[in-house]
Design goal:
By secondary structure, this protein is of the alpha+beta class. The protein is built from eleven helices and eight strands. The strands form three sheets. It has a four-stranded antiparallel β-sheet. A two-stranded antiparallel ribbon has the order 4-5. Strands 6-7 form a two-stranded antiparallel sheet. The relative contact order is 0.12.
Length: about 400
């Protein structure tokens, strides 16, 4: 057998099939092909089984009449509406309860987390009891508690709980005053846009004053603009009145009614997630070096100023990543609404629409894609905020 000789002083050449980079490339191509073949076999097998059972496939069902009612809808909906509109109703209901749940859980968790580190013994113990109680109760059981044990146990509308003649609690829901826009919703949107522009301008002005050593109380000014400017625009445009709920016949008329399913789900999600948010806030505050607080005290800042100006800004870079996970969990946990018949995306689309059309593959795939999209958008927004927070701390 002839032996291959290499020039004197040159390193022996490695055969191509023994090159680690070549072998890695070959293995990746083989793995990719195996995955593609597996997915193709699953899709082909599913379509064959559906055709054998006479089940239609495709997305032609979107325009068909739904033929069923939904007890809560943020947009106009009737039984004559299409499956596509039913999907939109379920999606909006999911987004509503998720957005309000994230807002309430964040505010409640922030307060509980700060109270967990309070020097007051009673306040600290109450916060610890809240966290240990609610984070160790299964979420589904908490939803059942608020729905069956609390809201469904309220009296009939004729004997409802009267809250100063403004709001009423009964087993049919919570009835609150509803604002009536005299100038139409367009003026409300104009007022909100004007308020946002005013807050941005105020932010730039206060930042220049802070850099010049003349700081201003920013948050009271922001809250004042946010709560005063939009109503002022509405009053100037055509007035703002309130519709109060009143008992007429067998139920309340007027005002804004919140069905028990929505209230129970919102309370359970907010209270449950707030317990985890509180622990994240506590861990973030404790991650800030104690010397920072001592330095803030040496500069004459009181405890509230030290917490707001020194500790929390540094703790945010630790708080934001796990907080993102809690937001994602809350959004996904809202699918448990099907247990109490709240008309969310899973209950309406992956439940009623799937049962009526029988197109399980399309309906379940679309539902999974929607939750994946919502989660990715939340993660993207939180990552952008986290990057901005880290940049602000480094600066």
């Amino acid at each position: 057998m002839a032996r291959r000789h290499t020039p004197f002083g040159a390193a022996p050449r490695t055969p191509r099939w023994r090159d680690p980079r070549t072998r890695a490339l070959v293995f990746q191509v083989v793995l990719l092909g195996a995955v593609a073949l597996g997915i193709g076999w699953i899709v082909n097998n599913t379509l064959s089984n559906l055709a054998r059972q006479g089940i239609a496939s495709g997305l032609g069902f979107w325009g068909e009449d739904a033929g069923f009612g939904i007890i809560m809808s943020l947009i106009e909906y009737s039984e004559a509406a299409s499956y596509g509109r039913a999907f939109l109703v379920g999606l909006l209901n999911t987004l509503l309860v998720s957005a309000l749940g994230i807002l309430l859980a964040t505010l409640l968790g922030l307060v509980i987390g700060i109270a967990r580190l309070s020097p007051n013994w009673l306040l600290r113990r109450l916060a610890a009891a809240y966290i240990e109680t609610f984070r160790n109760i299964p979420l589904l059981l908490a939803i059942f508690f608020w729905y069956f044990a609390v809201l469904r146990s309220l009296p009939h509308p004729r004997h409802s709980i009267d809250l100063f003649g403004l709001a009423y609690l009964s087993n049919r829901g919570v009835y609150l005053p509803q604002p009536v826009l005299g100038g139409g919703p367009g003026w409300l949107i104009a007022g909100l846009i004007l308020g946002v522009l005013a807050v941005l301008a105020l932010h730039r002005w206060t930042r220049r004053r802070r850099n010049a050593g003349r700081p201003l109380p920013v948050y009271p000014l922001w809250l004042g603009i946010a709560f005063i400017l939009p109503p002022a625009v509405l009053l100037a445009a055509g007035g703002l009145s309130w519709s109060l709920p009143a008992l007429r016949g067998f139920n309340f008329q007027g005002g804004m009614g919140l069905i028990p399913e929505f209230v129970a789900l919102l309370l359970a999600l907010s209270i449950y997630t707030a317990a985890f948010v509180a622990e994240i806030v506590r861990a973030g505050i404790e991650s800030v070096a104690r010397g920072q607080q001592e330095a803030a005290s040496a500069l004459g800042l009181n405890r509230r100023q030290s917490l707001r100006l020194v500790v929390l800004p540094q703790a945010m870079r630790v708080i934001v990543p796990p907080l993102t996970n809690q937001y994602l969990n809350l959004t996904k946990n809202s699918s448990l609404a099907a247990a109490i018949a709240y008309p969310d995306l899973v209950s309406v689309f992956a439940g009623t629409v799937l049962n009526q059309t029988g197109q399980a593959v399309e309906v379940i795939s679309i539902t999974m894609a929607v939750y994946l999209t919502i989660s990715l958008l939340i993660a993207l927004a939180m990552n952008l905020y986290n990057r901005r927070t880290e940049w602000g701390v480094r600066r």
